[in-house]
């Protein structure tokens, strides 16, 4: 199988697995009154997903190192299928949704870290950023399909129908993965080379190694902003649509459709970001994209009273720039960390990044509740998200300045 066809099919598999990430966010405007949830409780359900996902990503890193990325991708894929079906059929209120969406997150990491590892094994550094960008873009398309499909199905047939779309997506993703990886070698790194997932020696290396330390820190606050934005974007756009058009009956569909539009646009960011980083360097492109997304975050919540077209346009730029550096962070990590420490690096990055992803949707909801759910409350919530995200570009700047200094010393 050619590299292009292999990548296209793997991306299609990732698309199917990605539906579960956004089906709940799409239905927050419907589920908050139906389940009598406050904004902080609605955010807590999304946080439960990220809490499970942290464990999933660490487990995926361990399994990929010990049993190979191919076998891990396929094995965890079956767990994702089962847990998504259980969530779709069993989530009936705040408590059950927290438990079962957390369970779904616990099984969902097999298509992320092992998928990126498979791409790193197959593609050289010169084209790796582009390939990983395509993989991230496929997830963005899956998020868009999940938003639109879940919103439409839930409006006509109830929340369970929207959740079942995600279950069908995981089954399709697993079928495509089995077909794609049938002829792919399962590479198992030798124990001496791969390192333990929580190796103290690797932790010391990561702390002392400037590029690794700042890359992980930059990704952590990238994840804070991105995961908070994805959790609340559909609800915010639904509220903006209601403010302008009073479309109470169509809130779910309107918010989900508008958010899906931004995810489709973000595919350009993933593809372009990876390609730009291959051409112009990892850290310069990350700096530009992260500062642009933070600028959007700081003003986004205060735009609700402006024409809806302007709000959606900013949302498109916001999502495009926020996700554009995801693949670059991943490609950089594989290039600055030796294989012996890479499993620990992935685990630390996952724990810190998605740990912030646990906090950001919930804290966003807390700000909404505290400020009374008014248009101004949205402004303060988005501003809080962007202000803390500023740590990300600072870390990237430190990484860039360190790299420049090392290059200068090398020339001397």
Description:
By secondary structure, the protein is mainly α. The protein has one domain: MFS general substrate transporter like domains (Growth Hormone, Chain: A). The chain is built from 19 helices and no strands. The chain has helices at residues 3-18, 20-26, 28-34, 39-67, 69-90, 94-106, 113-122, 125-157, 159-180, 191-194, 200-208, 210-245, 251-280, 282-300, 308-324, 326-336, 339-370, 375-389, 391-411. Helix 1 (3-18) packs parallel to helix 8, helix 8 (125-157) packs antiparallel against helix 13 and helix 12 (210-245) packs antiparallel against helix 13 (251-280). The radius of gyration is 20 Å and the shape is globular. The protein starts with a helix and ends with a helix. 61% of the residues are buried. Mean pLDDT is 85; it is low at 404-412.
Short description:
By secondary structure, the chain is mainly alpha-helical. It has helices at 3-18, 20-26, 28-34, 39-67, 69-90, 94-106, 113-122, 125-157, 159-180, 191-194, 200-208, 210-245, 251-280, 282-300, 308-324, 326-336, 339-370, 375-389, 391-411. The chain has a single domain (3-183, 196-411), classed as MFS general substrate transporter like domains (Growth Hormone, Chain: A, Up-down Bundle), CATH 1.20.1250.
């Amino acid at each position: 199988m050619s590299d292009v066809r292999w990548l296209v099919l793997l991306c299609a598999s990732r698309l199917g697995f990605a539906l579960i990430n956004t089906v709940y966010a799409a239905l927050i405007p419907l589920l908050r009154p139906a389940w009598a949830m406050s904004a902080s409780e609605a955010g807590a359900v999304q946080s439960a997903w990220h809490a499970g996902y942290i464990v999933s990503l660490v487990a995926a890193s361990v399994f990929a190192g010990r049993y190979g990325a191919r076998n891990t991708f396929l094995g965890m894929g079956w767990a994702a299928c089962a847990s998504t079906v259980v969530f779709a059929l069993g989530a009936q209120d705040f408590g059950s949704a927290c438990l079962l969406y957390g369970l779904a997150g616990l099984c969902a990491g097999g298509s992320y870290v092992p998928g990126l590892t498979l791409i790193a094994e197959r593609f050289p550094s010169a084209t790796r950023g582009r390939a990983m960008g395509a993989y991230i873009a496929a997830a963005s398309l899956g998020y868009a399909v999940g938003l639109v499909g879940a919103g439409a199905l839930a409006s006509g047939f109830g929340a369970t129908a929207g959740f079942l779309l995600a279950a069908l997506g995981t089954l399709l993703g697993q079928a495509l993965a089995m077909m794609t990886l049938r002829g792919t070698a399962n590479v198992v790194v030798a124990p001496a080379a791969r390192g333990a997932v929580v190796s103290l020696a690797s932790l010391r290396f990561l702390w002392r190694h400037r590029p690794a330390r700042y890359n992980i820190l930059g990704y952590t606050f990238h994840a804070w902003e991105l995961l908070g934005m994805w959790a609340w974007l559909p609800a915010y756009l639904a509220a903006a649509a209601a403010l302008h058009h009073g479309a109470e009956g169509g809130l779910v569909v309107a918010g989900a459709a508008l958010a899906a539009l931004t995810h489709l646009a973000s595919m350009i960011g993933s593809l372009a970001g990876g390609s730009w980083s291959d051409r112009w360097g990892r850290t310069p492109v990350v700096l530009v994209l992260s500062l642009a997304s933070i600028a959007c975050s700081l003003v986004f919540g205060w735009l609700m009273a402006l024409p809806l077209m302007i709000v959606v346009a900013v949302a498109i730029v916001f999502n495009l720039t926020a996700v554009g550096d995801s693949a670059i962070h991943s490609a950089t990590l594989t290039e600055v960390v030796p294989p012996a420490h890479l499993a620990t690096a992935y685990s630390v990055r996952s724990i810190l990044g998605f740990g912030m992803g646990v906090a950001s949707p919930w804290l966003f909801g807390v700000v909404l509740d505290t400020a009374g759910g008014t248009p101004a409350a949205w402004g303060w919530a988005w501003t809080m998200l962007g202000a803390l995200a500023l740590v990300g570009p600072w870390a990237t700047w430190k990484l860039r300045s360190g790299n420049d200094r090392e290059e200068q010393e090398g020339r001397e």
